[in-house]
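Example for tutorial group B:
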């Protein structure tokens, strides 16, 4: 039977601890923050059916930045 790499085991343990913390963590949204969300959601450009075609142009531009990226070798 193969033994798990110590770094991988440490990383998985860290993920398990983070997941446990996330299950127990509670946070409060202030009234000011909720009011800000309501104001942003009320903008005409955030309404259902509004033109959001600008998002596709931005997404394509983002993809174009990375289309010729090559992985650089690790330096010791």
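The residue assignment follows.
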């Amino acid at each position: 039977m193969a033994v798990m790499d110590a770094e991988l085991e440490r990383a998985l343990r860290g993920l398990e601890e983070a997941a446990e913390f996330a299950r127990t963590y509670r946070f409060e949204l202030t009234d000011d923050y909720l009011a800000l969300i309501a104001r942003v959601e009320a903008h005409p450009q955030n309404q259902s059916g509004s033109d959001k075609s600008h998002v596709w142009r931005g997404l394509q531009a983002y993809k174009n930045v990375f289309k010729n990226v090559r992985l650089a070798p690790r330096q010791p």
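Helices lie at 6-24, 31-42, 54-66. Compare this with the pattern of hydrophobic and polar residues in the output above.
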